[in-house]
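Researcher: Re-running this chain for the archive, since the previous output was lost when a drive failed. Same request as before.
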Amino acid sequence: MITTRRCQKLAALAVFFWLAASGGAAEVAGADLFSGGVRQIRIVIAPSEMESLRASSRTYVTAAVSEDGKVFQKVGVHLKGSTGSFRSLDTKPALTLNFERFGPGKKFHGLGKIHLNNSVEDPSYLNEWLGGELFRAAGVPAPRVAHALVELNGRKLGLYVLKEGFTEDFLALHFRRTDGNLYDTGGGHEVTDAMERNSGAAPDNHTDLQALAAAAQEPDLGRRWQRLGQTLDVERFVSFMAMEVMAGHRDGYCLARNNFRIYHDPAADRMVFLPHGMDNLFGKADATLRPRMAGLVARAVLETPEGRRLQRARTQELFTNLFHVATLTNRVNERVARLRPALDRGAARELAAQAALVKERIARRVLDLARQLAEPEPAPPAFTNGVAGVTGWRLVDAPAGGKLDQAKSPDGRTALHIRAGPVTSASWRATVLLEPGRYRFEGRASSAGVRALKFGKNSGAGLRVAGVAVAKPQPLTGDSPWTKLAVEFDAGADGAELICELRASAGEAWFDAESLRLTRIR
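Model: Regenerated structure tokens:
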């Protein structure tokens, strides 16, 4: 399914990648905004409107906004941000500025809406910008990003990430028609939910979402692939999925059913997924290329043979074309050089330090992607009388001050061993391809001196399956003799990630390698 159109697009990716940084041609809305330096934005909100915002932070109030000598009156402003990024009005709030809210046709550099993100979850201020460039270079529409120094009622708030909104201005850059339904997660986080419609001329009855949900839940895999092709822009979705996994967008649709939009492109009559909220990227260098997907549509695609083949091929293509350490780190250097003159000495030093960490994470992730892509595809385990051993274990998150190794237990058994450091969340993991059905992952484990972490889930030593909630987990703590552990789960054709884990501040655990196995229940 690697089409001529796709090959042509890949050949032009290098050019597109650089255009992404400048916003494209001069006549494109917002091109000057996203190709220039750091913007100076001043916002004035009347005292009565400030009180209204304190009482109802998501409700628009009016404000005066000035930039580069131009003043915009009656601009709609409200606070934004989720659990991690929301900040009060009197600290460093994230803001949405809607220039058309109280006066249609009013534009800021050709845009009706922008967001000012406080970037409290990304001290580098670079992830959203870099993620947008990568997704657009992969052929997936994503908002453009600039930076601004923001002042509110005379109080300097500091550096912000300036991001274009998901509006018709944005849609016009990527689609021939802008009158399709645009959905966000206000009304739900899955295509089976009544997601909130932000814009669109079609009836607001969710029939387009329902058609995609029905296709994704089609039990016959051959028929499902056909129905997905009729309702979903499969080519773009596979690129969207591959990029979320490779760039480590762990809080996006595929891995967490969060931070995304869906546009029903009326010209093609297909649904297109759009990335959002990319504060954290490249966070885990060894994150698997074959995770268990949380998003229904992602699972539905990967459960089909055609979807798996296309995903593998697209991942390799995008890695070859886009994941060059020198290119990506040079882009970071260029962006930092653009930001530095607008910052004071302390802020500039901090930005440089955070950018260095971003470049290090990129280099480590690219190296691990190359390793994973060089490995052969995992083969399905061989079941005998419904039982199969588990091999191919890999270590994840080796603990500082601790150890992960395959060694003999104190009583001489061959074991997967984890010794905790001061703060440890380490594991041995194996990805297995399975036929759809219900399975039990089981094995024996023992522990010595394990002191469980006091935060998070699954503290202590235990077995689990990625993405599967256990009603009553029973991890091992303290000194525990060999104990049989088990967890049951349902597998789709995308398989499962099996985990032998220790979350502790002290102690060690052993997992008897010969006892680790899968049993097919039905």
